[in-house]
Automatic annotation (TrEMBL), chain A:
It is a multi-pass membrane protein. Residues 325-344 are annotated as: Disordered. It comes from Actinophytocola xanthii. GO terms for cellular component: plasma membrane. It comes from the Bacteria. This is Autoinducer 2 import system permease protein LsrD. It is found in: Cell membrane.
Automatic annotation (TrEMBL), chain B:
The complex is composed of two ATP-binding proteins (LsrA), two transmembrane proteins (LsrC and LsrD) and a solute-binding protein (LsrB). Part of the ABC transporter complex LsrABCD involved in autoinducer 2 (AI-2) import. Probably responsible for the translocation of the substrate across the membrane. It comes from Actinophytocola xanthii. It is a multi-pass membrane protein. GO terms for molecular function: transmembrane transporter activity. GO terms for cellular component: plasma membrane. This is Autoinducer 2 import system permease protein LsrC.
UniProtKB/TrEMBL annotation, chain C:
NCBIfam families: RhaS. Its main location: other. The keyword Signal applies. Residues 29-51 are annotated as: Disordered. This is Rhamnose ABC transporter substrate-binding protein. One of its GO terms (cellular component) is outer membrane-bounded periplasmic space. Keywords: Signal. CDD domains: PBP1_ABC_rhamnose (cd20000).
């Protein structure tokens, strides 16, 4: 096999890899929706779609890193809910909103640290730990605020969250989202931390032996996840100008679905941030466009579930087809010909 | 292969807690004992505060509530010991409850056993869908069942289309089953007990049961030992689905009003019951007895809060804390046992 | 070493946060500063032309609290009927869960689809407000029905009955069933359901009156308008309060679940249930004696009236100001009250004698 062909094959597999495909599908979906769905392309709708995908996109950023290390954080939506509840009750107690917001982000970080301690110090499986804290944090949110809602947040803040930059269709909240997305992308793909994340996910023992402080890494990832969930809780509360204990209920499943759809392996070690962002975008586009076409919520559920399964199933099938074809070829031609074209 | 069957607790990590002389088994039995003690304390405390907690009606209500959760938890345990998970049970419950409700509504003369079997069949098919995707699609169970959680629920919503089956549309004979008893024990509770005993015996005394534990403690080793991993996986998911289906019918009988949202979010409570009952999320250990007791404990907690007039909002938080506590204790015990085993082995040597 | 660094970073974070607190403790925006600048919405503008002709082809979308709720189904069916009479276009959308955030998504969709009127039963009066105002600024009329949105963000509100009337009726029925004295409990929907809370407030005032001094409200339980939850809450109430005489459930889901529990338990005959329910749901329990009487307005009329109000708004017959009048088909003439409220009428009481006359 010649060098140029090797390179060709390399770029081919990169293109055919799942995250590449998701990016492509997301772009196609956007274009088709803009062209074919009435009202999709309007500036109002674009703003709205960004607002809708904001919490999922935010939570997906640290979740990607966590899943790549082979762990999972199912408590994010409950962290969001607890933050929202605390935000409401602090506001009721007369504290200034400028104080409440950083405190809420800090609260998120502390909640994340709780997960981190259980996972890294006590060495408990993150799936079980975060199912526990999912119930715990949501329960505490209910204890803090009960089923009441706090609604009278200052208009300056609520309109900033729902508003747009000057007269454009760009929502204000897109800016912090893009900033965070950029930070997480760089961290994952261009820093030693990112390499450590991949190493830890690919093989924890090996990573440890090669000098990665896996526990410390995971601890801080959970803290980051909590802090971002806290921020998402603040933004959620301001967006709906309603602090409630049930805010974001069940959102964790949508976040995990988006991350997996974006090509991250649930077993860790594999995944890209652009893929995940495309996954989030694809889900949001489909939801928005299908709803505009009066497709019911229930059909949306089916589409989401199917996409999730297909996102893992399809690469598996194509891989096994490829290996099968390769094996057959090997059997047929004992000496591999250099001119063999790459398998489809 | 015979090693797997006769010495299931070969390694510290892979014990199932059924072999009597093994120290780990003793510890795990202590786990079930621990739940029983916790239950006893809770019931005693609540009863002192409000004696009506132990009235016949109240006990019946608790047991009926726990039965449905226990049936789900037993199915979940069978899947979890193989190092998989089934998050779709809540949606399967909703789908079968609505399906069976519709069928019974249209055919009021339908004998009840047939309704139960129908539910199990529908649930079993759902479970098989999961199984096929996990087995042949090589998709992790967490992903598959998360996907089917959405899909089965979506199908139910599409089908129900906002309709609700209400108690007055269901035949009396169907609903009154919830109140019928055998020797004073409600049928629903008997069914749950029967399911638990059958699954318990299967897991403990039969080869296929031992194989499930072996698969969970070490999938590669299980495969190398000649266990037909694929067939067992298919079986485990199908059983979990069928039991979720059965739970769906029990739900319909108990509550009488069924809409497409029935059982939403139950998956977490079910996993919680199993985990609290000592079933390790990474497979290979835990018993259905523990899971069923876990289900009972969670139900009793819920009821106690209402009776003690403690803010019902605390329930979630307590369940969460309990899960963390349970897995923490498991970890501690496992570490200590591993140390003890190491010490004993070195002594022998 | 790593533990040490972790601690250090945590300390740094904490001190940064306390610094933030210290810096902003004086001179931040607190609840007290902003209590008066709420609501970007506008009250009714323009002038009404009572002679204006009702337009045809008005596109009105109904957005109930949630879709799979038999009560909502009946409500919107009235809207469909009215829009049929008015030659308008009827549409029904809604979430499967009664959450405010999912309603917001639907409002946006309806804006994009350029509906003429949105009829909404708000899950959270404030959370839907910004989107509703966005809808109104793009020319869509907003008719709240059943459960009000904040009054700055809708044009009119179709109230099933006056809050006062319902609260009084509930206490009157409870007092009758309890024989004038004893413990009563309330099984409500969610703890922040607008209408239920308003009725409960009236009930409390009523119960404080001397003629009701022997009635004791022991607990308000919340079944979240979920059948199963309500069932369990009813169960809990009876366990906790052995002397309970009456459960009052001002929500159709709650009353049906409580009745079903009581009818299948040995509390039957000892505990009375009343509240607001639909005849079809309650028929069984009236017949088997679990329930003596309960009340409700005809929910289909709410949707019907909402549709007529919506079309009247679009046509310019009314603008939502107090005192304006419009015709609502078979229901006759209505006048808009204070704060844009339109009251449907007094509730009907159902018992064994009249229940078979109703089918909804």
């Amino acid at each position: 096999m010649s060098g140029s062909e090797n390179r060709l094959r390399g770029s081919f597999t990169r293109l055919a890899s799942w995250d590449g495909a998701v990016i492509l599908v997301a772009v196609v979906a956007l274009v088709v929706a803009a062209a074919a769905v009435d009202g999709f392309g309007t500036s109002n709708n674009v703003t709205f779609m960004v607002l809708d995908l904001l919490p999922i996109a935010l939570l997906a950023l640290p979740m990607t890193l966590i899943i790549v290390t082979g762990e999972i954080d199912l408590s994010v939506a409950s962290t969001l809910g607890l933050t929202s509840a605390v935000m409401g009750s602090l506001w009721n107690s007369g504290m200034a909103i400028e104080t409440i917001i950083p405190l809420c982000v800090l609260l998120g970080a502390v909640l994340g640290a709780v997960n981190g301690v259980f996972v890294t110090v006590f060495r408990l499986p993150s799936l079980a730990v975060t199912i526990g804290t999912l119930a715990l944090f949501r329960g505490l949110a209910l204890v803090v605020l009960g089923e009441s809602a706090v609604a009278d947040f200052p208009v300056v803040f609520t309109t900033w969250v729902t508003g747009t930059v000057a007269d454009t269709a760009i929502p204000n909240v897109l800016l912090p989202l893009l900033l965070l997305a950029a930070v997480f992308t760089v961290v994952l793909h261009a820093t030693p931390v990112g390499r450590a994340v991949f190493a830890a996910g690919a093989g924890e023992q090996a990573a440890r032996f090669s000098g990665v402080r896996v526990d410390r890494l995971k601890f801080w990832l959970f803290v980051a996840s909590g802090a971002v969930a806290g921020l998402a809780g603040v933004l959620w509360t301001l967006r709906y100008s309603s602090a409630r204990a049930d805010n974001g209920l069940g959102l964790e499943l949508a976040v995990v679905a988006a991350v997996l759809l974006g090509g991250v392996s649930i077993f860790g070690g594999r995944g890209t941030m652009p893929g995940v962002l495309a996954g989030v975008l694809l889900l949001a586009t489909l939801q928005n466009a299908l709803r505009l076409e009066d497709v019911t919520n229930e059909a949306l559920n089916i589409v989401t579930g199917a996409l999730l399964i297909v996102s893992v199933l399809l690469p598996n099938i194509s891989r096994s087809v490829r290996t099968a074809a390769q094996r057959r070829r090997l059997r047929r031609t004992p000496i591999p010909q250099p001119a063999t074209p790459p398998a489809p | 292969m015979s090693t797997v069957r006769t010495r299931p607790a070969g390694s510290a990590a892979s014990s199932s807690g059924s072999s009597g002389r093994n120290p780990l088994a003793a510890v795990l039995r202590a786990r079930e004992l621990g739940i029983v003690v916790a239950l006893a304390i809770l019931v005693a405390y609540t009863t002192i505060a409000n004696p009506r907690f132990l009235s016949a009606q109240s006990v019946r209500d608790i047991l009926l509530g726990a039965s449905i959760l226990a049936v789900l938890a037993v199915g979940q345990t069978i899947v979890i010991v193989t190092r998989n998970i089934d998050l779709s049970v809540g949606s399967v419950l909703g789908l079968t409850a609505f399906a069976v409700g519709t069928v019974v509504q249209d055919n009021p003369g339908l004998p009840l056993p047939f309704a139960l079997l129908l539910g199990m069949a529908i649930g079993g098919v759902c479970g098989m869908v999961n199984a096929v995707l996990v087995r042949y699609g090589q998709v992790p169970a967490l992903v598959v069942t998360l996907g089917t959680l959405y899909m089965f629920r979506g199908v139910t919503y599409l089908w129900a289309g906002g309709q609700q089956i209400t108690a007055d549309e269901l035949p009396r004979s169907f609903l009154s089953f919830a109140n019928e008893t055998l020797l004073g024990v409600p049928w629903l509770v008997l069914i749950a007990l029967l399911v638990t005993v059958a699954a318990g015996v299967l897991l403990r005394n039969y080869r296929v049961g031992r194989e499930l534990y072996a698969m969970g403690s070490n999938p590669e080793a299980a495969m190398l030992a000649g266990i037909s991993v694929g067939r067992n996986l298919l079986g485990a998911f199908t059983v979990s689905g069928a039991l979720a289906g059965l739970a769906g019918v029990l739900f319909a009988i108990r509550f009488g009003t069924i809409d497409a949202a029935a059982g939403t979010g139950d998956e977490l409570e079910v996993v919680a019951a199993a985990v609290v009952g000592g079933v390790a999320v990474f497979g290979g250990s835990g018993t259905v007895w523990g899971a069923a007791l876990g289900a009972l404990l969670l139900t009793v907690i819920g009821n106690s809060l209402a009776v003690l007039d403690i803010n019902q909002f605390w329930q979630n938080a307590i369940v969460g804390a309990l899960i963390l506590f349970a897995i923490g204790v498991d970890r501690l015990v496992a570490a200590r046992t591993a140390r003890a085993l190491k010490k004993r082995n070195s002594h022998v040597r | 070493m790593s533990r040490f660094r972790t601690t250090r970073v945590l300390t740094a974070l904490l001190s940064a946060a306390s610094l933030a607190v210290a810096l902003t403790a004086c001179g931040g925006t607190t609840k007290n500063d902003s209590s008066d600048d709420q609501g970007g919405g506008s009250q009714a503008t323009g002038t009404a032309d009572p002679e204006a002709e009702l337009q045809e082809g008005v596109k009105m979308a109904f957005l109930p609290k949630q879709l799979n709720n038999p009560y909502s189904d009946i409500e919107v069916s009235g809207g469909e009927e009215a829009l049929g009479e008015l030659k308008g276009e009827y549409k029904l959308v809604g979430p499967n869960d009664a959450s405010a955030s999912s309603q917001v998504s639907y409002i946006n969709t309806l804006i994009q689809q350029q509906q003429d009127v949105i009829g909404i039963a708000a899950n959270d009066p404030n959370a839907v407000c910004p989107s509703l105002n966005q809808a109104r600024s793009s020319g869509i009329k907003v008719v709240a029905f059943d459960s009000d949105a904040a009054k700055d963000c809708r044009d009119v509100f179709i109230n099933q009955a006056t809050t006062q009337g319902i609260g009084e009726k509930l206490v009157e029925m409870a007092s009758k069933l309890a024989g004038g004295s004893g413990e009563i409990a309330i099984l409500s929907a969610t703890a922040n359901a607008t209408n239920q809370n308003a009725w409960i407030d009236v009930m409390k005032t009523e119960l404080a009156k001397p003629e009701n001094k022997d009635l004791k409200l022991v607990k308000i339980a919340y079944g979240n308008d979920e059948d199963q939850k309500s069932f369990q809450e009813a169960q809990g109430l009876l366990q906790s309060y052995p002397n309970l005489k009456v459960i009052v459930s001002p929500t159709t889901v709650g009353i049906a679940a409580a009745s079903r529990y009581v009818s299948s338990s040995n509390y039957k005959g000892k505990v009375a249930i009343t509240g607001l329910g639909t005849p079809n749901q309650m028929r069984e329990y009236i017949k088997d004696g679990t329930v003596k009487e309960f009340a409700l307005w005809n929910p289909a009329d709410i949707g019907y009236l909402a549709a007529y109000a919506g079309v009247a708004l679009v046509s310019g017959q009314i603008t939502g100001k107090e005192g304006e009048k419009f015709e609502a088909g078979k229901l006759g003439e209505y006048e808009i009250g204070a704060d844009g409220e339109i009251v449907l009428g007094p509730p009907t009481v159902f018992d064994a004698n009249n229940i078979d006359d109703f089918d909804f």
